[in-house]
Amino acid sequence: MTPLPHDRYCDEIGRQTDRLRAAVTSGAALTATVPTCPDWSLEDLARHVGRALRWAALLVRTRAEEDVPEDEAPGAGGPVTRGDAAALDAWLAESGETAVGALREAGPDGPAWSWSGIRTAGFWARRMTHELIVHAADAELAAGRPFGTVPADAAADAIEEWLEIVRYAQQVMSDPEANELRVPGAGIHLHATDAPAELNAEWLIELPDDGITWRRGHEKAAVALRGPLADVLLAFYRRLPLDAPGLEVLGDRKLLEFWLDRATFT
């Protein structure tokens, strides 16, 4: 899949930041535990996302050639007082605006250090879009709110970027858990049941010895995960249980669980 246009990512960062802000200002306790990130409270999660946005903005704005500590990003610490939803909301809004402004000014090909092999502002536009999509869902779970909207093109791109990250972890980072995902002959099929036909939102993921591969299309596999695209995305990121309403697992469930246990963002 070709990544989305740069401006599309910038627009989506703004929308998904608003979605996170809505969870923060919903009246839910900022001390509430995030079920999918149990070491964090809702406020911890919001501060993590805002800090990441400001860090990405710093890397892009300064055309960084090497890593810069997150804490060096202006305003990365967030509001001094904890438990103030209004202050946290204003800081998140500014964080999103700072990131989008830096990304739009740099354009997709602007140089910027990243931990991946792609050292451009375009990498950060895509990465922060999907960081926000998933963490906004985390915040909604913590706040007891229904999941917000994830546009189909962004959801499909998030699945594909996640596959790229897992492969990168196997081939470059030598991640021990990702490297267990080498099972020749095994295949996982993801099938979105509600996506527009032109999006072709189906994937066959294979696990050969030389690292995972995938392709678009409707093909048989040892196990299939079927359901609405946004739900397939969230289950694939371990934000929804496989037994969630609307999802269906057909075939070797243990293989899918094996994948989910080892495909982690480290």
UniProtKB/TrEMBL annotation:
<dbReference type="Pfam" id="PF11716">
    <property type="entry name" value="MDMPI_N"/>
</dbReference>
<protein>
    <submittedName>
        <fullName>Maleylpyruvate isomerase family mycothiol-dependent enzyme</fullName>
    </submittedName>
</protein>
<dbReference type="InterPro" id="IPR024344">
    <property type="entry name" value="MDMPI_metal-binding"/>
</dbReference>
<feature type="domain" description="Mycothiol-dependent maleylpyruvate isomerase metal-binding">
    <location>
        <begin position="11"/>
        <end position="139"/>
    </location>
</feature>
<feature type="domain" description="MDMPI C-terminal">
    <location>
        <begin position="153"/>
        <end position="257"/>
    </location>
</feature>
<dbReference type="Pfam" id="PF07398">
    <property type="entry name" value="MDMPI_C"/>
</dbReference>
<dbReference type="InterPro" id="IPR034660">
    <property type="entry name" value="DinB/YfiT-like"/>
</dbReference>
<keyword id="KW-0413">Isomerase</keyword>
<dbReference type="InterPro" id="IPR017517">
    <property type="entry name" value="Maleyloyr_isom"/>
</dbReference>
<dbReference type="GO" id="GO:0016853">
    <property type="term" value="F:isomerase activity"/>
</dbReference>
<dbReference type="InterPro" id="IPR010872">
    <property type="entry name" value="MDMPI_C-term_domain"/>
</dbReference>
